[in-house]
Design brief:
The chain is mostly helical. It is 56% helix and 2% strand.
């Protein structure tokens, strides 16, 4: 395969009114504006955000060839090791960058400075190729020429990168009609890959770049929903690269096919994750099976399981709700049992310093079961057994 550079102008390519892509744009615009108003308690729902950040980070790294398994990464998170392998560092870098985006995206434009900072975080502490997934010049556009493995597209020469990236940033910030927002996200993602602005880490950086654009548009948990955008790209790595190749042609048809692929995946992920707003579903399909899993593997005791099942049934509990499982015990003993679960990070106050509690599952006792339950119900982009 001989790679060739194929210049084409960066423009908005509009779908026809009766196309599937137009339907997707309309549906996603509705989902963007739909607020978080399900029956799941926000204190519970927001915990899931951190799990999906973890999954997005792992999935993005694995697209690039990182072979860390889900089980390995979960154990690393739970054990809180002081020294971690570079393969784990690569994934943690992506998590850190996602947190950085959420903290700063609403107060900073998506520009060269912002993307350079993201790239620095992506390659932080990693060895440069051929020994690792780092970069000798973090945050700095490449000066030389690069190739993309197994691609017929040859990125522009290093001397052209700055000009092409400036054009991309202007494309993003241009005040077009809102109906074009999602088209711009998809087109910008491809254009970034097409430019390949850094010596290494472009794939991880472009998925964070896309995450930043989507959060800025309102597709984030604080505005009303959890978003798992990396799942769009890593459910099927080959499809991702195939559709990118179609867009590399620069033809209207190729770019529209790429946009439809991105938006269809985005819609599927949002609709799937919106199920978690329905507490009946979350309770029966995710949380209660998690407790059973934890008992089966003796991560928790039967007494702890009884308390947690009451917490799950009621969503919010106070000490009086647990007296039925501690007959004859004084209030101080019930409070002591609650304190033990708080200390083990299995309960968390509904409000700071409050005396009502909800379940907490980002701990050594329940996280494995939560991940397994999510996997069993098709929420994970990475299919493997824990």
């Amino acid at each position: 395969m001989i790679a060739k550079f194929n210049h084409f102008d960066l423009i908005l390519v509009e779908p026809t009114f009766d196309s599937n892509l137009t339907d997707l744009i309309i549906d996603l615009d509705y989902l963007r504006k739909k607020q978080l108003n399900g029956t799941t308690h926000p204190r519970v729902f927001f915990q899931l955000k951190h799990i999906f950040h973890l999954l997005e980070s792992l999935g993005s790294a694995r697209i690039e060839g990182n072979n860390t398994t889900l089980a390995e990464y979960i154990e690393t998170k739970l054990e809180k090791q002081q020294t971690i392998p570079l393969s784990i560092q690569e994934i943690q870098n992506i998590e850190n960058a996602m947190n950085f985006i959420e903290e700063h995206i609403n107060s900073h434009p998506i520009n060269k400075v912002f993307i350079s900072e993201i790239h620095k975080m992506v390659v932080n502490g990693l060895l440069p190729p051929p020994d690792g997934e780092g970069d000798n010049t973090p945050g700095i556009y490449r000066k030389g020429n690069v190739g993309i493995g197994n691609s017929a597209h040859k990125p522009p020469e290093g001397i052209q990168v700055g000009e092409y990236m400036d054009e991309l940033f202007n494309f993003i910030k241009n005040q077009d009609s809102q109906k074009y927002d999602l088209l711009k996200v998809a087109i910008a993602h491809h254009r970034f890959v097409w430019i390949h602005p850094f010596n290494n880490g472009n794939g991880r950086t472009v998925r964070l770049f896309t995450y930043a654009m989507l959060v800025k548009l309102g597709f984030n948990v604080n505005a009303g929903r959890i978003l798992n955008p990396t799942a769009v790209f890593c459910n099927n790595r080959n499809n991702y690269y195939d559709f990118l190749s179609l867009a590399d042609s620069g033809t209207r048809e190729g770019i529209l096919n790429w946009c439809e692929y991105v938006l269809k995946g985005l819609k599927n992920e949002i609709e799937k994750i919106d199920k978690l707003l329905n507490y009946d579903y979350l309770r029966d399909e995710i949380l209660l099976p998690t407790i059973d899993y934890a008992i089966e593997r003796q991560y928790i005791t039967n007494a702890e399981a009884k308390i947690l099942k009451i917490v799950i049934e009621k969503q919010v509990i106070q000490a009086a709700d647990l007296k039925s499982i501690f007959p004859g015990k004084v209030d101080a003993e019930v409070s002591r049992q609650i304190r033990k679960l708080i200390d083990k990070n299995m309960l968390i106050p509904e409000k700071e310093n409050g005396r009502k509690y909800v379940i907490r599952f980002d701990n050594n006792y329940l996280l494995r079961g939560i991940i397994k339950s999510l996997d069993d119900k098709g929420f994970l982009p990475i299919k493997e057994r824990l």
